[in-house]
Every structure is written in C-alpha cells, then in structure tokens.
Amino acid sequence: MTTPPATQALQHIAIVMDGNGRWARLRRLPRVAGHRAGARVVREIVEAAAVRGVANLTLFAFSSENWRRPADEVSLLMALFVRALRDEGNRLVENNVRLTVIGDRAALPVRLQKTIARVEADSAHCNGMRLTVAANYGGRWDIVQAARRIVAATAAGEFDPATLDEASFTPWLALDQAPPVDLLIRTGGEFRISNFLLWHLAYAELYFTDTLWPDFDPAALDLALDWFANRERRFGRTDEQLRIGGTGA
Ligand code: IPE
Ligand code: IPE
Ligand code: MG
Questions:
Q1: Where do the domains of the chain lie?
Q2: CATH class label, 12-138+178-244
Q3: Ligand 1 centre from 27 Cα, in Å?
Q4: The pLDDT of residue 6
Q5: What percent of the chain has pLDDT over 90?
Q6: What is the helix (H) or strand (E) element at residue 98, kind and residue range?
Q7: Virtual CA dihedral for 175, 176, 177, 182, nearest 10 degrees?
Q8: Which of 28, 43, 105, 115 is least surrounded by CB atoms within 10 angstroms?
Q9: With 80 as the cut, is the pLDDT of residue 247 above it?
C-alpha cells in the first residue's frame, strides 16, 4: 500500500472570481473599487499558480450575462481589463505564461479586442502555465458555437458527422487546448456555476469559499489545493475499486 502523493494530479484549475461588489459594499466604497481590488488579486493569483506549477488556469472575468449590469459598471470592467492586459502583458511573458481569451469577442470594445490580440500574440511562444481568461463567455454559448461550426464544416464537406463523439466534439469548444477542469474554485459564497465552463466541469471537484475575491490570496489558494489533494476522484467507479486498482480517469 503506497501513500498517495501530496497533491493528486491537478492539470487544470478554474476560478469564478466572485464577490467584488460585496467587498466594496462592506467598506462603503463604490462597486468599482471592488473590481479594482479584484484586478490586483488576479495578478497575485496568476503568479502564485504559476509558481505552484499549475499547468492550466482559467479565470471567469465577465459572463455573457454580465452585460445586464449598469452600463457604467460594464464600461469600467472593460477599461480595467484593457489596463490589466497593458500593464501585465510583459510580466506574463517574463513568467512564461501564455494567455488566451475565450468568449464572444466580437461584442467586446474594439480597443479591448486589439489589446487581447496583442498580448495573445506576444505570449504565444510561452510554454509555461496556460492562462485562459473567459470574457463575454457563457458555457451554453460555447456549446452552441461549437455545434454551429460543426454544422458549417459538415455542410462544406470538411467534417464527417458519423465521426462525432465526445472526443471529436471537444476541440470545437472555445477552450480547446486544455484538459478537463480538475478543481473549480468559486469565491464569494454562492453555490452555483453561473454558466461557466459547462462541458469541462463535468467531473471537476467543486470548492466554494465565503472569501470574497479581493480577499483571496495565495494562502487561500493553498487551502483549496490542500482540500483538493484529499478528494477521492472516482470517475464513476467505487471507492473499493480505487483502493485495489489505483487511479486514472
Ligand atoms: C465578480 O464580482 C466580478 C464580476 C462578475 C465581473 P461581483 O461584481 O459579481 O461581486 P458581487 O457578487 O456583487 O459581490
Ligand atoms: C459570475 O459571477 C461571473 C464572473 C465571476 C465573471 P456573477 O456575480 O455574475 O454570478 P451570478 O450572477 O451571481 O450568478
Ligand atoms: Mg457576483
């Protein structure tokens, strides 16, 4: 009988960064102050994840549904995104982090689209951590856009629908390069997915914490990692089978 490794295979962490507004309200500050504080934390957590050897980190920055917020909050979020990319782009490259943005980009401000394209191109050669930021992203949108592209490719004679199965469907999704999510972290105390990565979360371990995103720090990340290390991932098997036969997806 061997002791399990300190951390079981953890290829992909996804985070719903929630609680900026409540963090600000607790301090009698405007919501935007919470978003600014949240943006600083993104920087810190990206670096902490890279240092801990996380291969894939996917962050939910703006959902398809967040357009329903007041217009001034939406434009501030877009402006913060542009600023963060401009300020941090070089640091990402120095840390060998490759950035990809997923979501329906066409609806984002053109200035943001250009900044995203630049940082993606600048970091395309980086082969350390893969950082994916979901902006104007929805899990349902993603599945539908994949289906639409498959239909178009089929009509063009470029895809044989008889070959369609789970494995051949996955590459059509926006998050095509990452393995399934192992650990989903949601800050801010809500117990929901909010239309994040529906397909990739199928077998994720779900970690919910009351900590508001602007208070989430590397120590809080370590708590989540420790919790994950103690999960028994069965992937449909029984716990007895795991004890006898080892692990494996
Ligand atoms: C998450 O914080 C940030 C985004 C959705 C962009 P919220 O702004 O949702 O914070 P709460 O949930 O109102 O506290
Ligand atoms: C989820 O947070 C989206 C992001 C963190 C970007 P929300 O605050 O928008 O989620 P709901 O509306 O409470 O479900
Ligand atoms: Mg929220």
A1: 12-138+178-244
A2: alpha beta
A3: 15
A4: 41
A5: 90
A6: strand 98-102
A7: 60
A8: 28
A9: no
CB atoms within 10 A of CB 20: 24
Nearest protein Cα to ligand 2, atom 8: 18
Gyration radius of the chain's alpha carbons: 19
- In one-letter notation, the amino acid at residue 225 is L
Q: Does the pTM of the predicted model rise above 0.70?
A: yes
**Whether pLDDT at 246 is above 90:** no
The answer, yes or no, to whether residue 56 has pLDDT greater than 60, is: yes
- The residue behind tokens 């401000």 is 109
Ligand 3 geometric centre to CA of 198 (Å)? 18
Q: In this structure, which ligand is nearest to the CA of 65?
A: 2
Q: Which residue has the tokens 């893969």?
A: 130
Q: Give the mean model confidence (pLDDT) for residues 241-246.
A: 81
- Gap between the Cα atoms of 75 and 73, Å rounded: 6
Active-site residue numbers?
18, 66
**Cα-to-centroid distance, 244 and ligand 3 (Å):** 43
Q: 49 and 13 in contact (C-beta within 8 Å)?
A: yes
Does the structure show a pLDDT above 90 at 200? yes
Mutate to test the pocket of ligand 2, among 194, 195, 212, 216 (most ligand atoms within 8 A of CB): 194
Distance, CA of 38 to CA of 214 (rounded, Å): 5
